[in-house]
Write a structure and sequence with these properties.
Chain lengths: 199, 204
């Protein structure tokens, strides 16, 4: 296994999925975090002037999606075989369609507009989004999205829902399989330990 | 070899990269193109999630254009020769997806003033940014492909995303000669050339 350093801001954001995978795999990595003041000095060293960046034996790689897929491959969270990888990518693709709606809420400053966006997010958007996931869980028949074990798919969905729960606590109520999947992820021993200590 | 049927609208849009991958792979596939007038109806009901595209592999249905393109690329040697190369390829695919979102926002904007602003930003800022990065990657690789010594999903994704601007705003490309060279190289590959020669022209 190469030496891994993950570079990001001091928050969850677009790096948390990578952190969850490292922890779930019990894989050592340098969790490098930049404050607002420290970031400008590192920025020109990054491939695209953005974070996260994954350093693999000293080489820097950008693009969070690419990084997650790479780590999933290396750490054993990409399923068995190409069809399972395809199924994992489908779960991620659905999440990617959903992220812009989520980001819009966070970037909207005006209170009334923000309220309206949140309302739409936690009702229409979330329902559409979760219905697809509930169907996939039903089709797979285990408490995981793909196969019989933890994959990047479970971790990505876990991460997205983390942002929605504070906006609406009962958002998973109509989705029993999603609830069960979330419990499964949370009770994974290494992830449980990480969640207890993470800021 | 499994039997592939690819379902998408009768245009390039979000679905063309997958078609390019299938063509590059040299596999037989049914290219099912759905007329907008006939959509949604029965066609929508037949999809996994009410959206296009989806790929049928021996009758089993799989959605999400990105997932499909990755799958075909893995199956047919279009993903480079190592996990790190795949990481680099995915990096470019991610950039292309980011640019697609910006393009789509501009293209589908209903308010004509906003649309003009978005289109200007696209051509003056977003596209040159993307082309600059791509030119830099190509400068670091002798083969003329983005990564390694042969065609990968990176070359095909880029080929596809630049189609509209290359056609409509070719003057922008004069500052990015390696990008243009790569584009010509990809288009001249036998399977791609054959596919492109038969492909109908669509606005998007």
């Amino acid at each position: 296994m190469p030496a891994f350093r993950l570079h990001y801001f001091d928050s969850r954001g677009r790096a948390e999925i990578a952190r969850l995978m490292f922890n779930a795999a019990g894989q050592e990595f340098d969790d490098v975090r930049y404050s607002k003041e420290e970031w400008p000095a590192f920025k020109p060293k990054t491939p695209l002037g953005q974070l996260p960046v994954l350093e693999v034996d000293g080489e820097l790689y950008a693009e969070s999606g690419a990084i997650f897929n790479y780590l999933a491959r290396e750490l054993g969270f990409y399923g068995n075989g190409n069809i399972e990888a395809l199924q994992i990518d489908i779960v991620i693709g659905i999440a990617k369609d959903f992220y812009p709606n989520l980001l819009k809420v966070f970037y909207t400053q005006e209170e009334q507009a923000k309220k309206e966006l949140i309302q739409k997010l936690v009702t229409e958007d979330a329902t559409q989004f979760f219905t697809k996931y509930e169907q996939l869980l039903k089709d797979n028949g285990s408490s995981y999205f793909v196969g019989n074990g933890l994959t990047l798919a479970d971790i990505v969905v876990y991460d997205v829902i983390e942002y929605l729960l504070p906006l609406r606590a009962d958002i998973l109520e109509p989705f029993p399989l999603l609830q069960a999947n979330r419990k499964t992820v949370e009770s994974n021993p290494r992830i449980a330990a990480y969640l207890k200590t993470r800021k | 070899m499994p039997s592939y049927t690819y379902h998408y609208f009768d245009l390039r849009g979000k679905g063309e990269t997958c078609r390019l991958c299938l063509a590059a792979a040299g596999v037989q596939f049914k290219d099912h193109r759905i007329d907008h007038a006939a959509w949604p109806g029965d066609y929508k009901a037949a999809t996994p999630f009410g959206q296009l595209p989806y790929l049928e592999i021996d009758g089993k249905k799989f959605a999400q254009s990105g997932a499909i393109a990755s799958y075909i690329s893995r199956e047919h040697g279009l993903y480079g020769t190592s996990s790190l190369e795949a990481l680099a390829i995915d990096g470019v695919v991610g950039l292309v997806a980011d640019y697609y979102s910006l393009w789509a926002k501009a293209y589908f904007e209903a308010d004509s003033n906003k649309k003009i602003d978005l289109q200007l930003k696209l051509n003056n800022v977003d596209l040159p940014n993307l082309l600059g990065i791509l030119e830099k990657i190509l400068a670091g690789n002798d083969s003329g492909y983005y990564f390694g010594n042969q065609l990968t999903l990176a070359d095909l994704s880029v080929y596809d995303i630049l189609e509209n601007s290359y056609r409509d705003f070719s003057n922008i490309y004069s500052s990015y000669p390696k990008v243009v060279e790569n584009r010509k190289k990809v288009a001249a590959l036998p399977r791609i050339a054959e596919y492109l020669s038969k492909r109908k022209e669509t606005e998007i």
